[in-house]
Specification:
174 residues; alpha+beta; 5-stranded mixed beta sheet; two-stranded antiparallel sheet; globular
Length: 174
């Protein structure tokens, strides 16, 4: 059986894959995580004159956050400065996002089966580092705080909007 950290990480990736599948998107896993990216997600077609638009995501599973979010954001400190730099800045050819998947601490709470379907726990949130400056002389030992908006819930609708470069009109859950 996988250790807790591995289970959380697998669940986080599977959560994002499930949303992408429901959105009709293509998912690509990288053979090595050398660039800090877990998955590439693409639209299979053309949107606004662009063929196969896509994004790349770094996924972090976050078991049982110690604090509730502030009124507007989660304070996530689970990435190092080096990891932060792999998604910060506006010079990537493919937009990059941090996807924060809140997971229950116990494996038996990941999903609940009902007569009408299955419920995944908990929600996932996305954050763009596009407007953030990379850290000068980053350290793999120092962690960087990221303020992830509570309104940025990753849903089928919002994921498709991110991939197709059309921002959701609001932060509502779809």
């Amino acid at each position: 059986m996988l250790e807790a950290l591995g289970r959380h990480g697998n669940f986080g990736e599977d959560y994002v894959r499930t949303l992408a599948s429901a959105a009709g998107l293509l998912v690509r896993a990288y053979s090595l995580e050398r660039d800090g990216i877990d998955l590439g997600i693409r639209f299979p077609g053309r949107v606004n004159g662009v063929a196969s638009p896509g994004i790349e995501v770094q996924i972090r599973a976050w078991p049982d956050p110690r604090e509730a979010p502030s009124a507007a954001e989660w304070d996530f400190t689970g990435i190092t400065e080096v990891q932060f730099n792999r998604i910060a800045g506006d010079d990537f050819t493919i937009p990059r996002y941090l996807v924060l998947v809140r997971v229950p601490p116990e494996i038996g709470e990941y999903a609940e089966f009902r007569t009408d379907g299955m419920l995944f726990r908990h929600l996932a949130y996305y954050w763009s580092g596009r407007d953030e400056a990379p850290v000068g002389e980053p350290s793999p030992e120092r962690h960087r705080s990221v303020r992830v908006p509570v309104a940025n819930v990753l849903t089928v609708r919002s994921l498709r909007a991110l991939v197709c470069s059309v921002q959701p009109q609001d932060g509502s859950v779809a």
